[in-house]
Specification:
This protein is α/β, with parallel strands linked by helices. The chain contains ten helices and eight strands. Strands 1, 2, 3, 4, 5, 6, 7 and 8 form an eight-stranded mixed beta sheet that branches. A hairpin with a 2-residue loop joins strand 2 (90-99) and strand 3.
Length: 266
Amino acid sequence: MRKRTPEVKDRNQCRCRTIERSMVEEHDMDAKHFDHEHQGCRENFVKSLAATIYHRLPREIRNYIYSYCVQSDYDDEVIVRRRTDSRGAIAMLVRESLGPYSYRWMEDPITCLIKVPVLGDDVAREMLESYYRTRKFKIAHRDLPLLETFLRTDTFHMGISPRLYIRRLEIEIGVEDCHVQRLELARSSDEGVGLQAIQALDANVTVCTDVAIALCHGGQPLCRGVRRLGATIFDDAVSATLLRAIASLRTKKPRARIVYRKTWKD
């Protein structure tokens, strides 16, 4: 029997590897084509289901469906933050559970669903309205300059302003600079940021919005001082200017109130 030379063996092995590589590439192309077709089928199914819900169910039933779809797995809070990347000015963060006693922040995944190309114009608008109505939006003291932008910006590009639909909003005001008396000086301090936030609430939120104003001093809530000393604690912790602004807001927005909580931790 004639033996094959090393050159023949190398050529055969190279040919086998080429055939195997081409088979793998062909399989990958088929898999990608299948995934693309499958993705298209899913998108068409979602659009068809959304259209069926919109045309066959009354608005009351649709609202129940939307409320279920936009709820979070952890809680109903959405933390509004300023983005650090180039994808826009506003980030909406929610907690993702990592176990019984831990969590991490992540971009709210529901925001990827509430889009016209995914749900169609009518259902996307109604679901976005439900998202704003049912979730609780919170803004920390360091992000208060973003408050008015958030309330007025059509983040989802559907012609929907959050300020008209949000029903629960909480802001945190730090009162580190205690003895600021003049408004010109207050604008450059933490308390000045709080004053601007109160003015933004006065100009933008509706009377139906439940507004919670969390006053924090030194990272701690003022409630312990209030229990111990009564209203006089405000003489040392909050200036009269800020108190008057909050009182004025509460006369115009009946559902605005002061709460006492610790500074939110990341």
